[in-house]
Amino acid sequence: MFFFQPYFYYITIALQLICVIHCIKKANQGYWIWLIIFLPLIGCIAYLFTEIFTKRELNKVQSGVGTVLNPSGRIKKLEANLQFSDTFNNRIMLADAYLEKGFTDKAIDLYESSLTGNFTENEYVLSKLIVAYDKKKQYEKIVALGKKLSGLPQFARSRSHIMYATSLGYAGELQEAENEFLKMKSKFAHYEARCQYGKFLMRQNRQDEAQQLFNDMVNESPHLTPRERRYNREWLQLAKGELQKLASSVKS
Description:
By secondary structure, the chain is an all-alpha fold. Helices cover 77% and strands 0% of the residues.
């Protein structure tokens, strides 16, 4: 038992800190602080089960665990919310959940039906529709929405902008696609956009330009911070893979 005593002491101190901080934040009665300090074990247990582990707090924990263990449970709850109250926010929350779980057609139906009244040009919904249409490869629809959003400053830095530029290429608007890609072409940034631009160049049989673009990306990699490399790992690996494909095609 003596071996475990230091651990018991540290656990008690940690519980005291948690309870005192919670007590101060919630502006609970001052007597709790004295009880926690002078009767640490009894005071902490009493505070935990009367002030922290209330029924409401436990419900929040159970709800969070349920969402992780049963993701469809969250969708059912959102569907019930919409059935009870058909509001714009309830529609979009459910559409977002559908999109996240791969129910793209359902998400599109809800997003499209939400574009009414004051929300006809809602930027958030239009951007999410672009993401949904991209999953279905509905490039013409993406182009139409992208033209609506292209003047907004936040659109220039979004993934929707990348999808818009890519869709312009697939829709045959090649010069417009290149113009959009060039807006996102800068060193040490926009790696996803630059990858898509490189693939666009390859589809136009401009392999030399694509190779230079991918080379630039790979050469920049050692100069990035570890966090930047982790964040852009997928696109840096894609650039390396495309370079290997280009090298193989030259040899063959």
